[in-house]
């Protein structure tokens, strides 16, 4: 009886150029919102785009649905309001296009009217990174910004970089602090952030002792990063703050961190909304940039 022969082959080692190309960010989606922090966010995302030679896709959505009035006779939109919104959008586009004309970055600008979140979800499907801010912090466009960010996490598998309320860009001198609890969500966020982590001088895998999230120890995460050429170290902090989010922030400040990396929604989003949670707390407000994936 002839036996099948099993042949195992070892592929050739990947060159450093091949590895960098495979993990690089090449398309960045940037949500344009004309608030006071827009220019700071734009400069931050331009810096990331330059580092990777990435295309920057700017998307501005005029949320006409937020100004629609529904009654028994149908849906009505005040045309004067729409005209005013269109005029503001045109001014914003002209200003940003003049700003971008001097940048050595490939970019496109898309301006649409409609529902904000569905359009961002659609555009993010072919982006390597979605960059957004927390503005507006007060109810606007039909709800709080936490609802927009939470909805994006529910529907988008692209890593989400929420720029900080105080430190907008990524500081090249500070390490990334990864909120590590061994969970699948934390591991997903770690894998999704590899390209950005390579821009920073190191990584701190931060564990809050009371946070019980999964079975993957920090040593395995450290080894994973090492195989990508990323230096990291393990830091464990006792539970001291009112919440785990407070302890993560304290740990990030102690490390003079450039950003915080974490997984999104360890349980269902409904559970986060009812009982609070690290994800929701940091989405509502964080001085440092927050890279989150799930």
How are the SSEs ordered, and which strands pair?
Layout: H1 16-23, E1 27-31, H2 38-52, E2 55-62, E3 68-71, E4 74-77, H3 79-100, E5 107-113, H4 116-124, E6 129-132, H5 145-155, E7 160-162, E8 176-179, H6 184-192, H7 194-197, E9 203-208, H8 218-227, E10 232-237, H9 244-254, E11 259-263, H10 269-275, H11 278-284, E12 290-293
Parallel strand pairs: 1-2, 1-6, 2-5, 6-7, 8-9, 8-11, 9-10, 11-12
Antiparallel strand pairs: 3-4, 7-12
Offer a few descriptive terms.
single chain, 294 residues, alpha/beta, Rossmann fold, 2 domains, ten-stranded mixed beta sheet, two-stranded antiparallel ribbon, 20% strand, globular, disordered N terminus
Could you please describe the fold and organization of this structure?
The chain is an alpha/beta fold and 294 residues long. The chain has helices at residues 16-23, 38-52, 79-100, 116-124, 145-155, 184-192, 194-197, 218-227, 244-254, 269-275, 278-284; strands at 27-31, 55-62, 68-71, 74-77, 107-113, 129-132, 160-162, 176-179, 203-208, 232-237, 259-263, 290-293. The chain folds into two domains: 23-162, HUPs (Rossmann fold); 176-293, HUPs (Rossmann fold). Helices cover 38% and strands 20% of the residues. It starts with 15 loop residues before the first helix and ends with a strand.
């Amino acid at each position: 009886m002839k036996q099948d022969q099993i042949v195992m082959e070892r592929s050739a080692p990947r060159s450093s150029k091949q590895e960098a190309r495979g993990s690089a960010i090449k398309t960045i989606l940037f949500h344009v919102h004309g608030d006071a922090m827009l220019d700071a966010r734009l400069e931050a995302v331009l810096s990331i785009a330059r580092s990777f030679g990435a295309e920057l896709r700017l998307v501005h959505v005029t949320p006409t649905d937020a100004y629609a009035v529904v009654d028994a006779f149908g849906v009505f939109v005040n045309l004067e309001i729409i005209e005013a919104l269109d005029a503001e959008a045109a001014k914003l586009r002209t200003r940003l296009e003049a700003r971008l004309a001097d940048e050595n970055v490939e970019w496109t600008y898309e301006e649409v009217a409609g529902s904000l979140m569905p359009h961002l979800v659609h555009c993010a499907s072919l982006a390597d990174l979605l960059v957004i801010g927390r503005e507006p912090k007060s109810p606007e466009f039909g709800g709080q910004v936490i609802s927009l960010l939470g909805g994006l996490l529910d529907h988008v598998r692209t890593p989400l970089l929420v720029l900080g309320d105080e430190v907008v860009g990524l500081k090249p001198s500070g390490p990334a602090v990864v909120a590590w609890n061994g969970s699948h969500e934390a591991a997903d966020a770690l894998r999704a952030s590899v390209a950005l982590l390579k821009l920073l001088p190191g990584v701190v895998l931060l564990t809050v002792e009371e946070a019980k999230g999964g079975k993957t120890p920090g040593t395995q995460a450290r080894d994973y990063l090492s195989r990508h050429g990323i230096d990291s170290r393990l830091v464990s902090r006792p539970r001291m703050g009112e919440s785990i989010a407070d302890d993560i922030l304290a740990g990030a400040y102690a490390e003079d961190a450039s950003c915080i990396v974490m997984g999104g929604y360890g349980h269902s989003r409904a559970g986060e909304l009812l009982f609070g949670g690290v994800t929701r707390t940091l989405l509502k407000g964080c001085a440092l940039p927050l890279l989150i994936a799930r």
